[in-house]
Design a protein that fits this description.
Blueprint lengths: L1 H17 L10 H17 L5 H7 L1 H10 L3 H8 L3 H14 L3 E5 L2 E4 H26 L2 H10 L4 H32 L7 H28 L16 H19 L2 H10 L1
Helix pairs in contact: 1-9, 2-7, 2-11, 3-7, 4-7, 5-7, 6-7, 8-9, 9-10
Length: 267
C-alpha cells in the first residue's frame, strides 16, 4: 500500500508541476512537443559507441529544469524506474563485445563498455525529456496538440480515459488493500493464498466503477467523441524559442563540441 500511495503521490505531483507559471510552462505546447521530439531524435541518432555527443546533449535538461522550477530529484526518481530495463538490454554488450578500444591507466576499455554506457545514457536522456514535457505541460494541452494534428479520435479518447482511470484504479486498490489488512490481523503484506481472491475482487470493483463512470458520462451528454479543445495561437516568442532551440540542437548534434573542448583543455 505505501507503494500505491507513493505512485499516486507522484502522479499528483506531476500534475501540480505542470500547472506552474514559468517561462517554460508558458511556451506553446506544440513548440515544447516539437523540441522534445527533435531532442529525442538527436539522442537516438548517435551510434552505439558515440558517448561524447550524448554527454553534450545531457547538459540541456539541466538547463531546462531550473528555468521550469522542476526539482532535479523529482525527475531523477521517475527516470530511475526505466533504468533497470535499459540495464537488462545493455548488459549483453559487456559480454559479447569485448574488443579493446583504448587503455586508461592500464584498464582496458572495450566496445561493449561504450555500447553499455550509450544505452544507459540514451534511456536516461529520452525519459528525462518526456518527463520534462509532461511536467511543464498539462495533459489536456498535450491532448489538444495531438488533436490538432488529427490523431484518430478513438486513440485520443483511450489516452484520456487511461490517464484519468489510473487514479480510480489506484483508489480502488487502496480500498481493497485496506479492507484486507483490517481482516488479516497482524499479517504483513498480502499472503499468496489470498492474492487471487484479492485481484479478482479488485477487477470486479474496477469494472463496476467503470460502469458507473460511463453512465455518469452519458448523463452529461457524452457521445463517444473527445470534445474539441481550444489551443492558443503560436506567438512570436514561441517561434523565436523554437528556432533558437532547434539551432542549439543542430549545433550540438553536428559539431563535436566535447572533442573540441578536450583538445583545448588537454593539448
Amino acid at each position: 500500500m505505501p507503494k500505491m500511495q507513493t505512485a499516486l503521490g507522484r502522479l499528483n505531483s506531476t500534475e501540480a508541476l505542470s500547472e506552474k507559471n514559468t517561462c517554460v510552462h508558458r511556451l506553446h505546447p506544440a513548440v515544447k512537443t516539437v523540441i522534445t521530439v527533435i531532442y529525442i531524435l538527436c539522442v537516438i541518432s548517435y551510434n552505439r559507441y558515440q558517448l561524447n555527443g550524448l554527454i553534450t546533449l545531457a547538459v540541456l535538461p539541466f538547463i531546462v529544469m531550473p528555468l521550469a522550477e522542476i526539482p532535479i530529484s523529482a525527475i531523477v526518481k521517475r527516470m530511475l524506474v526505466a533504468l533497470p530495463f535499459a540495464l537488462l538490454a545493455a548488459i549483453s554488450n559487456l559480454i559479447f563485445d569485448t574488443k579493446t578500444v583504448f587503455f586508461i591507466k592500464g584498464f582496458a576499455v572495450t566496445f561493449g563498455m561504450l555500447a553499455f554506457g550509450s544505452v544507459i545514457i540514451k534511456t536516461a536522456l529520452t525519459v528525462t525529456a518526456v518527463l520534462l514535457l509532461v511536467s511543464t505541460t498539462p495533459f489536456t494541452k498535450l491532448l489538444a496538440v495531438v488533436q490538432a494534428v488529427h490523431l484518430p479520435q478513438v486513440l485520443i479518447m483511450q489516452l484520456t480515459l487511461t490517464q484519468r482511470y489510473i487514479y480510480v484504479l489506484v483508489e480502488e486498490a487502496q480500498s481493497t488493500y485496506t479492507a484486507y489488512r483490517l481482516r488479516a490481523g497482524n499479517v504483513k503484506g498480502v499472503q499468496i493464498r489470498d492474492m487471487g481472491t484479492l485481484l479478482g475482487g479488485l477487477l470486479l470493483r474496477s469494472i463496476h466503477r467503470a460502469e458507473r463512470i460511463y453512465n455518469a458520462m452519458h448523463c452529461r451528454g457524452f457521445k463517444g467523441e473527445y470534445p474539441a479543445q481550444t489551443i492558443k495561437k503560436v506567438s512570436v516568442t514561441d517561434i523565436f524559442t523554437l528556432v533558437a532551440a532547434l539551432s542549439v540542437l543542430a549545433v550540438l548534434r553536428f559539431i563535436p563540441i566535447a572533442e573540441l573542448l578536450g583538445k583545448v583543455l588537454f593539448f
